[in-house]
What we know:
By secondary structure, the chain is of the alpha/beta class. The chain contains 4 helices and 8 strands, in the order H-E-H-E-E-H-E-E-H-E-E-E. It has helices at residues 2-13, 21-35, 54-74, 117-129, and strands spanning 18-20, 40-46, 51-52, 82-90, 96-102, 132-138, 141-148, 156-157.
Amino acid sequence: xxxxxxxxxxxxxxxxxxxxxxxxxxxxxxxxxxxxxGRILLHQELADDCAVSPEAVLPLGQIVSEAMTNAVKxxxxxxxxxxLVVRCWRDDLDTICVEVADNGCGLAPDPANSGGLGxxxxxxxxRKAGGAAxxxxxxxxxxxxxxxxxxxxxxxxVI
Length: 159
């Protein structure tokens, strides 16, 4: 994936320095939106003050990619347009939050205990990034939220 290749170059040029998550997520979402043109409507809210460690940036991009891909596959079995919102922001506790929400049919009644491969992968990637994943499902769709505590934060560098 081109976004991953760009990230690897940036990490090689600035080893150990934190990365602007919003820039990486713009690349990831742009590639998926292009591949799914005509099937999704993408809205992004990516704050510029979200910097994460090199160890966290790749898994977070993979989480966004997985959540978007799952939404395209499963959110609208009727074939209607999938509306996706991808956000990253820093909350009041200085926690980095990454969210992917869709307008689909939601999940089975208990998504937190779901054994689906995609949800298990997102949980594992969130742990790898140093955070935790939450799943909020309802008639208005699925929301995947990952929170990273401030231990992953420090000086920010642009890629």
